[in-house]
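Suppose a colleague, Dr. K., hands you the sequence of a protein chain of 295 amino acids and asks what its three-dimensional shape might be. Before reaching for any lab equipment, you can write down a predicted structure in token form. Begin with the sequence itself:
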Amino acid sequence: MAPVTLPSDLAFALAVTVYPLLRRILTGSKPSLGRLIAVNKATSTVHSSLTTILAAYFLYGYKIRHQGAPPASPKEGLIASQGAAAGVSRYPDDSHNPAIQTRSTLGNVITAFECGYLLQDIFALVWEARLRSRLAGSLKDQPLLRMILTHTDQTLLTHHVGIGIALLILQHYIHGGRERGVHIIVQLVLMNSSTPLLNLRWWLRTYHPSLKLLCLASDLAFATAFHLARIRLVEWVVRDYGMAHGRNSAWKTYWEDLRLPCQLGTGALYVANAGWWTILVSSIMQRLICDLRWS
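The predicted structure, expressed as tokens, is then:
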């Protein structure tokens, strides 16, 4: 039986057409840099809010369906150690793990919609880079790649390119009916939940810098949301995977159950987010100290 991909294809097409169309309507054909950035921030807020709601709805339904289900391999610790001693793979059997095997049209739609948004937003970042380059008077002198690397947020661009490519590969697997781990990917989409506070923080600091208490409140709210949505969430995802094998610890699951590619990817994500959070908190503290010194 052929996989049902029409809903996810439509979601992808919707993201790569409607967002650019709305951006063009709201900015016009020759927008100022400030207007384009503001519209991109507003688009980001709408998209992140929508995908957070969809992901939460999907995960709530998943929890209801699998609540009370027994672990996929209750004696996996013993089986793993015996298997390792016998020269067999020490990793747990995921053939009955719902976190890996669950297939969902809604889950596929969410990943396709996120993929389409990221890809079209890369072009929005390039548009921003062109305007910045034009303002700097270097548009004619710079090759496209140098212009992009010079005038875009490198962290954001790297995020979009990396995650966008990964989700494109997932769409290929969905079309072949071979997708796995969609539940885990949708869990990670919940990282978008911190983005509205990021954009609120930008808006206050850009247009209302004199409202120092509100700016500080937005700083603290975003730092808290970032920690929960992009650091603690990773721990929850790993622990949730391990619970299907009788584990209750994210760290034990990470070190003893995850295969090396998963360890490397999860570890890199966790360390990067923890590093960004540390830089964020440090900058908030420095700004607070400066404000107190000058008040």
